[in-house]
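User: I'm new to structure prediction. If I give you an amino acid sequence, what do you actually give back? Let's try with this one:
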Amino acid sequence: MHQNHIIGLAFFNIITWSGTALGLVLLMLIAKSKRYRDLGRLAVVPALFGVTEPVIFGTPLVLNFDFAVPFITNNTIVLIISYIVTKIGLVARFTGVQAVFGLPLGFHAAVEGHVSIIILQLVIQLVISPLLWYPWLRHADNKALAAEKTAA
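Assistant: Good question. You get back a string of structure tokens that encode the predicted 3D arrangement of the chain. For your 152 residues, that looks like this:
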């Protein structure tokens, strides 16, 4: 069955799953500063299930000018990329089925019924998201590391 529209609530929920914050959490696991490394360890398991509140409020991302640009723009970037690859036919159109909250990465996209959607979600969360967050976390991590060294 051919879907008439590309964008719908299921498209938005699967593409922006966890607010693309999983990439930030994965980068925190290899951070130099103890602050971000510990937060990454704390947040990685919930983030794999789409629960990113530990990193959103633990970093904090809200009202933090070091992370304002990626926090605001990353979802838009991945939505545009996803729309394009769906429009040209590399990824199947979404059926519109809504997944229940709390499914792990990949399973959330599996309810749409096509392996290309699962692959798209994995690429977004494990490749594109870390690339988008990297320069911003590196800057904040260097600041946190300098603060840790002066406090010691």
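You can read the tokens as a compact description of the fold. Here is one thing that stands out. The chain is about 65% helix and 0% strand.
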